[in-house]
Amino acid sequence: MRALMLEKDAAGAFSASVKQVDSTALPAGDVQVAVEYSSINYKDGLAITQKGPVVRSWPMVAGIDGAGVVTSSQHPDLKPGDRVVHNGWGLGETRWGCLSERASLQGDWLVKLPDSISNRQAMAIGTAGYTAMLCVMALQDRGVQPNAGEVLVTGATGGVGSVAVALLAQAGYTVTAATGKMQETEYLKGLGAAQVIDRAELASPGRPLQKERWAAVVDAVGSHTLVNALAQTRYGGVVAACGLAQGGDLQGSVMPFILRGVSLVGVDSVMAPLAVRRRAWERLAAELDPQRLDRMVTEVSLDGAVDAAHRLMDGQVRGRVVVRVTP
After folding, report:
1. Scanning 49, 57, 95, 289, which has the fewest C-beta atoms within 10 Å of its C-beta?
2. Domain count, the chain
């Protein structure tokens, strides 16, 4: 099988390349999947470019996402021919991932794809889009309605941000998109953003309480951006935090929480329970406009995945990168 291998030699030199791998080296799993599509997420970018300590076991097949067809199964809920999607669960970190023609997985990690979502569309959504839906669910489960006011989405040209903008706009929310790529304003408005602001407005240290503006926030950036978003969130508002593109620090104040009753909700996609995953994918099938999804996608072959990861980490990618694994 062909796979994108991440390796270190005896001297510790790192390499990332597509090569032939003996399929007998796959880890044990109760479901075998022929992977048709994968994707490049931020975590994949960190691993493939060695810009973050993602990989914990060597050698490693990259790819936290995969969509394909079950070829054999010992799991009671899955059978050969089922189309499935995988997100997270340590793939590409501690266990061989899905940037490979075959994957050996645990059935409890897999979600059967709704009929209305193709394998390619599943990876156009990927972990980023599935995380965006978890964020939307977090806001709505806490009572944020479309008439509540403006909703801020940070990192809006990224995978999470792009899908979050599209989902929220489709649901009737007034979305303000924050980005460092103001040249992508038309792209973001095409996804449904009512307004686009420069991320510089949020990226530097600010006052602990600022003018109330946002009814809710989806933040994929962290650091000063998240602190400022909290400081600008209206009384009783909700902030869903799912990323740390700017940084993992949170040098803020308790004032938004104790003076305005703001809620900060952490959103984890890696270890989310199966029931939550199923709910998210069912909603994605029903609520994400396929035409808006198509606007986000760049497709590459498996051989192009390393270059795509470098472009993602260099800020040269908008939306989602889909990897066509099968020739």
Report:
1. 57
2. 2
